[in-house]
Amino acid sequence: MGLDRQKLAAELLKFSDNQTLQQLSIYLYEIIPSTNQILWELLDDRNLKPPLAAIAAEQTAGRGQWGRQWQSQRGGLYLSVAINLNIPASDAPHLTLFSAWGIAEALRCHDLPVFLKWPNDLILEGRKLGGIKSETLIQQGTIAQAVIGAGINWKNPVPEVGINLQSFPAIHSLEQLAAIAIYGIFFGYQHYLSNGVEILLPSYLNLLQSIGREVTVNGSPGVVVGVNSKGELRVRLHSPGATTEIHLPSGTISLGYDDQL
């Protein structure tokens, strides 16, 4: 079985100071292709209005970065939220920045030392705990709506580079994890709307474990020095007698994990 609606409601009540959560409609599913897909269908076919959330016990067609299939076996958390926005389409990378940061901060408040790996991974003890995938509806050059999906490992099987929360007593139920993740997305969203990316970015960088990582770009050695306000990876390249900084958008380089290097 999937989540218990009453238990989830009780966990969300712990964040009752968040006004957006008070307006949130939540849809629970057993098995669906993807929570992102189902929310777009609710928005388009049934003309429902954000904020909405969809949570599935299992996904059959979840997708992560690079279009890779996200393993969505039972025991993990698979959720998406739909929100209204009014920001330039060029600012689409900000969605991943504020969502990943917000969820990480919410988990850290529950004694889980979660960090971030650019562009969209949640990291715990050097391994992948979860990931973020955002999609947008653009009208006349402006993002009008967005669906932000998150997959977080709880008690599901994980690959070698992954980790789940089975041995971490800070999270006692999937309902609690779902409430924390939903709150984290809206916490990051409201912080971004109130303060902008320039205020959000330093907080994001404080949790970014990718800084200092050695990389190779087109045969040139370099080191990651940060992320800019466009969500691009800042890499300082080194060559004899010269140092150059380049900015790489998401999808142009994969940082990988230590086990994969």
TrEMBL record:
<keyword id="KW-0436">Ligase</keyword>
<dbReference type="GO" id="GO:0004077">
    <property type="term" value="F:biotin--[biotin carboxyl-carrier protein] ligase activity"/>
</dbReference>
<dbReference type="Pfam" id="PF03099">
    <property type="entry name" value="BPL_LplA_LipB"/>
</dbReference>
<feature type="domain" description="BPL/LPL catalytic">
    <location>
        <begin position="15"/>
        <end position="208"/>
    </location>
</feature>
<protein>
    <submittedName>
        <fullName>Biotin--[acetyl-CoA-carboxylase] ligase</fullName>
    </submittedName>
</protein>
<dbReference type="InterPro" id="IPR045864">
    <property type="entry name" value="aa-tRNA-synth_II/BPL/LPL"/>
</dbReference>
<dbReference type="GO" id="GO:0005737">
    <property type="term" value="C:cytoplasm"/>
</dbReference>
<dbReference type="InterPro" id="IPR004408">
    <property type="entry name" value="Biotin_CoA_COase_ligase"/>
</dbReference>
<dbReference type="InterPro" id="IPR004143">
    <property type="entry name" value="BPL_LPL_catalytic"/>
</dbReference>
